[in-house]
Every structure is written in structure tokens, then in C-alpha cells.
């Protein structure tokens, strides 16, 4: 690898690290407005993106221990943010579902970031955006895989 390429790779890693830190801090701030932990907030994001999930599926997605998921779902249910409902295909299972009405009032918290991201995307060509999408998808998969490796013993 050329020294210029090595420098570019190091710069990408540094910038990704900075983005990761700022993202965690942003989500911590968002979570704080609802009295949630950042982990609880991100589990809610799984529900928002993937729809209702079983506790086992939430444990697999998040890397959390099943007992931790159960305790977290109990807390979120007491706060009125999620609900348990019967699984349509297996009466032995339960689905955890996001209460859309409970989170509607918080959507404005994202306005500045979402508007800024739209503006930022406007600076790039369609081909550059496709490259960014590919990079972010691959980085997301690698990060998820890395989390699974760290939590697979739980």
C-alpha cells in the first residue's frame, strides 16, 4: 500500500471514529429528552426500521443478553413506548411493537440533523452518493458483525 493510500485510509478511520462519537453523543442527547438510555433509544430504532420483533430477535439485533432485553422491554412498556402483542404465527411467542403515537412528539428533535443531511447530500453527485451508500452499508455490516463477535458469548 502506498504511503498516500495509507494516509487516506487512516484519515477515513479517524473521520469514521469522530462520526461514531458524535452520533453516540447526539443519540444520548435525544434519549435524555425522554429519560431513555442510548441503548433503549437504539432498540426503539430497530423496532421503527424492522417492525415488531420478538425479544429473541431484539437480542440478536442488539447483541444484548436476553435477560437484559426483557428488563429493557419492561422499562419501555412502563414508559408507554412499546407494547407486547401476540405473535400472529406462534401463540407461544410475543412481539414487541413500537407505539408510534408515543414517539410522534419527539420527531421534531431530528429536524436540524435531517435537514442538514439533505443539504449535505446535495453537495454530491448521484455516483458519489452511490459510493457513500456502499461504504456506509459495508461499514454498518462490519460494525454489526464486530458487535456480534464481542457479544456472542452472552
Characterize the structure shown.
The model has no long low-confidence stretch (mean pLDDT 92). The longest helix is centred in the first third of the chain and has 32 residues, at 3-34. This protein has a two-stranded antiparallel sheet. It has 7 helices and 2 strands. The chain is mainly α and 154 residues long.
The portion of residues forming beta strands comes to 5-15%
Largest sheet descriptor: 2 strands, antiparallel
| Straight-line distance between termini | 38 Å
Element order: H for helix, E for strand: HHHHEEHHH
The total count of helices amounts to 7
Structure classification: mainly alpha
- Number of β-strand runs: 2
Low-confidence stretches: none
Task: Give me the secondary-structure topology.
Layout: H1 3-34, H2 38-50, H3 55-62, H4 66-78, E1 82-86, E2 94-98, H5 100-104, H6 111-121, H7 126-151
Antiparallel strand pairs: 1-2
Could you name the key traits of this structure?
154 residues, mainly alpha, 70% helix, globular
In short:
The protein has 154 residues and is mostly helical. Helix content is 70%, strand content 6%. The chain has 7 helices and 2 strands; from the N terminus they run ααααββααα.
Amino acid at each position: 500500500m502506498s504511503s498516500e493510500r495509507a494516509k487516506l485510509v487512516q484519515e477515513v478511520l479517524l473521520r469514521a471514529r469522530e462520526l461514531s462519537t458524535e452520533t453516540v453523543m447526539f443519540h444520548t442527547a435525544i434519549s435524555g429528552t425522554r429519560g431513555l438510555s442510548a441503548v433503549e433509544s437504539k432498540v426503539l430504532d430497530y423496532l421503527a426500521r424492522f417492525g415488531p420483533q420478538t425479544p429473541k430477535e431484539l437480542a440478536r439485533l442488539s447483541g444484548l443478553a436476553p435477560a437484559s432485553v426483557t428488563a429493557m422491554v419492561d422499562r419501555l412498556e412502563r414508559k408507554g413506548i412499546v407494547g407486547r402483542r401476540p405473535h400472529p404465527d406462534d401463540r407461544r411467542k410475543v412481539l414487541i411493537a413500537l407505539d408510534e403515537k408515543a414517539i410522534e412528539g419527539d420527531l421534531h428533535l431530528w429536524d436540524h440533523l435531517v435537514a442538514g443531511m439533505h443539504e449535505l447530500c446535495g453537495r454530491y453527485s448521484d455516483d458519489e452518493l452511490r459510493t457513500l451508500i456502499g461504504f456506509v452499508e459495508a461499514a454498518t455490516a462490519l460494525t454489526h458483525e464486530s458487535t456480534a463477535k464481542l457479544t456472542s458469548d452472552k
